[in-house]
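G., the chain you wanted modeled:
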Amino acid sequence: MTALARPLAITLGDPAGIGPEVILGAWTRLRAAGEAPPAFVVGGPALLRACAEALGIDCPIVPIADPAEALFACGAGLPVMAGLDGALTPGRPSPEGARLALASLQWGMKFALSGVAAGVVTAPVSKAELAAVGWDYPGQTEFLAEACARPYRDAVMMLAGPSLRTVPLTVHVALAEVPGLISQGLILHKARIVAEGLRRDFGIPAPRLAVAALNPHAGEGGKFGEEDAAVIAPAVEALRAEGIDAVGPVPGDALFTPRARATYDAALCMYHDQALIPLKALEFDEGVNVTLGLPLIRTSPDHGTAFDIAGQGKADPGAMAAAIRMAAAMAAARGKAGA
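Predicted structure as tokens:
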């Protein structure tokens, strides 16, 4: 068990998705392994109890009135904040469920920002369902940035698993827009945040970064595009001049081989799928979405709501367990560094 002075806050996610069951499954798995850190779920005691009963998950629910109670209550079961609850509706998303997911996320953020919680682990939400109740963000990462009073570009998404960490420099945009969005400034800004995050939150004193090429064969001397030579290579040189151990542009088809992965601590990728395909292929059941560049710790399982299998006992809690475990390790690393 990771020793933390403050508990982690775990948000519910959409109650119609697999969030409730993977929270229960992850907590049960971590407790059995002796790896459960102090933590609490932000709302849903009746909902989670109903989910545990429906799926036969042996996870006692311990309602609490204050996050500090989680430090003691976690010995008896899964601490859950009372006062915020709703109905268990697996596979049937609704406005009520979306509002519950949003309220849990908002309170989880408040607990983390105020220092009551050591960090926040967010269960999956549906952007479409949230949009229907007034949500106006591309994703939870952008919401977190605004809640922290930081520009969106400071919230850097990193996907992390046991053998690979990747960072998409552009995220939810059309592929045709990517070449126009890639700039030396963007690469430098995000690479600095990633390097600092690896030092502060992962205890890597001298992070090694690999920067992916945009085009096949890194442009093949301009034959397949000019961006690699004109934009990416100069940015890598500038990073090296700052003392950051960076290499690139590395052709995408060579970047993720076992031998290549051993040479860097994180790969900076030019677009969404370049980063997420290898991570999900290699680490799907243990992939964690980590937000770097913000004053708080935030992790999330690297999967969605999976409405189609919710409530059927098919969801693997491995990624949620990994997200909780990683948030606890990051909080411990910050504590050692005095951050």
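The chain has two domains: 1-153+294-339, 156-292.

Shout if anything looks off.
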